[in-house]
């Protein structure tokens, strides 16, 4: 990711995807406010994906450079506005981690990565000359992880040994070394126009401040252990006339702090999930939704200002979550045999129960709030009666009949029946009161369902595309108005249909954003937006429905 000198345009390096039109690796130029794509550069010119990208500075950002993640790690420079390739060269066999233009000369570039730092110069003949950095007597690191440019054009690099090297302007040799700066690798170096710079370490979670003569200030910042370790540290906006620092972490948090003596505490601008995210539910009346995942984090989000209201780390990896019809309680199911009930306003836990022998894949309150159904990986659905406005739970019974794990379940509007799907593609129906299976599916044909999240059933038979197997669609949800149906699939796409969708192999409107399988989808209370969660991309996305 790279920011243009005008601070209004961003370049992102895209990997190969599944989209027919723009599925090949490319550099995408887009507006940071509107998120509209301005240019697609290099489509068809890259092998695997863009591992690093940067804009030129001296010429006003007229050029962009990208490094291919293919075997040769080709480096190519483009006039991005007309999509014209200016020059290209092989980067070498080793991985490249960073690239940037020299701030005072757009014909000079620097790259770094495994066991190397390299200095490049465009010679005006569509070729780029390369000089490798020479370490000589200095300890050669396994990785040069980051670099920045000093006030006089020199290059300041940070490496996996925790050392900083200064490389003379227009040279490829070390002019100064500062050893053992951080405990562990240095993942971030960021300079400023006045010559001061920051260094951010991984293992020690610290950010140091340096002056233009490479003297380390006594001022330093340390991010909380719960937020992970430092991956990026940059200068932020002033806070009470003090320059602030923004830090991005390994646990997908962004924090802000200052070096001011009385204010060395970081505060969170945002927290994200750091492992697969599977659980999602929306508030019945407010612009709020809840997510959870394998990082053990349970998060309440405000959809209007896209902010995190609160986050709580629980003891176990989390699989699914639901909200009580009164909107005041959350029930979250874990990857072992436990579920917990928490206050939706504060995240305070007040009930926990172990039931069954395996993880619980889905969980849902009945519309009247008197039952809680827990669908388990042990092939059973466990029913609990709920009283005292959701604060008392008693095991009511066990629904037995599936021969595989429970994947999805829904309640009828009258809270008397359930429908469920399983891993072997069964659709079964149940009576809640006596915990018995309804043997005749035909007798349930006129049942009104409070929600529709089952991926199998007559109203959703058209969502399955040509050639799909039973695992390709992970999640679906009907809008509250019963006008629309959205599903999420293994290709990372959201597909929206009119409801019911009974015509086989119906054609959806497709939204793409996730780089991994979509694990859960939900309509917000007004049906104006959809929220989705991704698996390995650890991402929560909010989509606006437009007619």
UniProtKB/TrEMBL annotation:
One of its GO terms (molecular function) is microtubule binding. Keywords: Microtubule, Repeat, WD repeat. Residues 1-257 form the EML-like first beta-propeller domain. It holds the Pfam family Beta-prop_EML. Residues 278-545 form the EML-like second beta-propeller domain. It comes from the Eukaryota. GO terms for cellular component: microtubule; mitotic spindle. InterPro entries: Beta-prop_EML-like_2nd (IPR055442), Beta-prop_EML_1st (IPR055439), Quinoprotein_ADH-like_sf (IPR011047), WD40/YVTN_repeat-like_dom_sf (IPR015943), WD40_rpt (IPR001680), WD_repeat_EMAP (IPR050630). The keyword Repeat applies. Gene3D superfamilies: YVTN repeat-like/Quinoprotein amine dehydrogenase. One of its GO terms (biological process) is microtubule cytoskeleton organization. This is Echinoderm microtubule-associated -like 2 isoform X3. It comes from Paramuricea clavata.
């Amino acid at each position: 990711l790279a920011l243009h000198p005008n601070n209004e345009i961003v370049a992102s390096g895209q990997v190969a995807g599944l989209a027919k039109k723009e599925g090949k690796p490319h550099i995408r130029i887009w507006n940071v406010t509107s998120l509209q794509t301005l240019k697609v550069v290099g489509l068809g010119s890259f092998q695997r994906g863009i591992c690093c990208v940067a804009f030129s500075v001296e010429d006003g950002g007229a050029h962009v450079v990208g490094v291919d993640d293919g075997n040769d790690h080709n480096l190519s420079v483009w006039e991005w506005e007309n999509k014209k390739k200016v020059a290209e060269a092989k980067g070498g066999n080793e991985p490249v981690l960073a690239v940037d233009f020299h701030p005072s000369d757009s014909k000079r570039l620097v790259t770094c990565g495994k066991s190397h730092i390299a200095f490049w110069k465009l010679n005006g003949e569509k070729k780029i000359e390369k000089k490798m950095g020479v370490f000589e007597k200095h300890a050669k690191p396994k990785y040069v992880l980051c670099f920045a440019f000093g006030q006089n054009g020199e290059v300041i690099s940070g490496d996996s040994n925790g050392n900083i090297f200064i490389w003379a302007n227009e040279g490829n040799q070390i002019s100064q070394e500062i050893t053992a700066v951080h405990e562990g690798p240095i993942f971030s170096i960021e300079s400023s126009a006045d010559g001061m710079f920051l260094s951010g370490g991984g293992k020690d979670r610290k950010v140091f401040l340096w002056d233009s003569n490479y003297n380390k200030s006594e001022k330093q910042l340390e991010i909380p252990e719960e937020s992970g370790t430092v991956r990026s540290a940059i200068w932020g906006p002033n806070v009470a006339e003090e320059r602030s620092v923004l830090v991005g972490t390994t646990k997908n948090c962004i924090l802000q702090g200052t070096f001011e003596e009385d204010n060395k505490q970081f505060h969170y601008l945002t927290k994200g999930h750091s492992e697969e995210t599977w659980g999602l539910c929306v508030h019945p009346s407010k612009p709020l939704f809840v997510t959870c995942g394998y990082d053990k984090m349970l998060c309440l989000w405000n959809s209007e200002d896209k902010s995190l209201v609160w986050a709580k780390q629980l003891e176990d990896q989390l699989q699914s979550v639901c909200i009580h019809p009164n909107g005041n309680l959350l029930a979250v199911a874990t990857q072992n045999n436990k579920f917990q009930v928490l206050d939706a306003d504060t995240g305070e836990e007040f009930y926990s129960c172990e039931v069954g022998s395996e993880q619980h894949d889905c969980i849902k309150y009945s519309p009247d709030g008197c039952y809680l159904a827990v669908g388990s990986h042990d092939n059973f659905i466990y029913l609990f009666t709920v009283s005292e406005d959701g604060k008392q739970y008693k095991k009511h019974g066990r629904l037995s009949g599936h021969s595989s794990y429970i994947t999805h379940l829904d309640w009828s509007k009258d809270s008397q029946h359930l429908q469920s799907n399983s891993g072997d593609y069964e659709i079964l129906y149940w009576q809640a009161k006596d915990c018995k299976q309804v043997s005749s599916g035909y007798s349930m044909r006129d049942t009104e369902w409070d929600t529709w999240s089952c991926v199998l059933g007559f109203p959703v038979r058209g969502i399955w595309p040509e050639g799909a197997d039973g695992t390709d669609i992970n999640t679906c949800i009907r809008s509250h108005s019963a006008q629309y149906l959205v599903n999420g699939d293994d290709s990372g796409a959201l597909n929206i249909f009119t409801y019911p969708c009974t015509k086989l192999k119906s054609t959806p409107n497709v939204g793409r954003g996730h780089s991994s399988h979509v694990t859960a989808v939900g309509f917000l209370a007004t049906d104006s937006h959809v929220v989705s969660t991704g698996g390995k991309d650890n991402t929560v996305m909010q989509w606006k429905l437009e007619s």
